From TrEMBL:
Keywords in alphabetical order: Membrane, Transmembrane, Transmembrane helix
Annotated TM spans: 63-82, 88-107
Protein name (database record): Magnesium transporter
Superkingdom of source: Bacteria
Length: 184
């Protein structure tokens, strides 16, 4: 999948684009609007970026997970080589310490990520501060012509680049969740 970024200053136009794409077979989960104008977004039927995704939690969480895993392995190796595992308590305290270090590193780095804007927000910070909105769409290769056709009918959309899309497995989970919610 590929991610296409567009910039617009008109939420009504973006709402129309989203509706046309949805009617053409592109799922609502594949489209997002990033904006600093939360009050304006509330007045439109747009699939906005969740507030958690505006932060860099995932990126820093991965870093914390790697650091925590390295610390956990280090504790396990030192515990084994030093003979601590040969005591009456055995492996339990060593494994517990390794798990605590792993969890603490993940937790702490995620808090660090909460204080930083995500890559998309940093990339379009100037546009967002000017009151403009970023519309991005994740499309499969066979959906590219549909996207091009719809975008051509909206001259106010500015092409702002390309990027890597959300993983297909995550998209499937989000689509299944939305189907489940609508059944309730």
């Amino acid at each position: 999948m590929n991610r296409h970024y567009y910039i617009s200053d008109n939420l009504d136009d973006l709402e129309q684009v989203e509706q046309e794409l949805s009617e053409s077979g592109i799922g609502i989960e594949q489209m997002h609007v990033l904006s600093d104008s939360d009050a304006e977004l509330e007045e439109h039927r747009l699939h906005e970026v969740p507030s958690m995704m505006k932060k860099d939690v995932v990126h820093w969480g991965k870093i914390g997970l790697m650091i925590g895993a390295a610390l956990a392995v280090l504790v396990l190796v030192v515990g084994y080589l030093s003979g601590w595992t040969q005591t009456a308590a055995g492996w339990i305290p060593v494994v517990f310490l390794a798990a605590v270090l792993l969890g603490f590193s993940l937790w702490e780095s995620s808090f660090f990520g909460l204080q930083r804007p995500s890559g998309d927000v940093r990339r379009f910070q100037d546009n967002l501060q000017e009151g403009r909105h970023v519309f991005f769409v994740d499309v499969k290769p066979e959906q590219e012509p549909v996207l091009d056709m719809v975008v051509r009918h909206h001259p106010r959309l500015e092409i702002a680049g390309f990027g890597s899309a959300m993983p297909a497995w995550w998209l499937s989970i989000e689509q299944a969740w939305n189907r489940f919610r609508h059944m309730m």
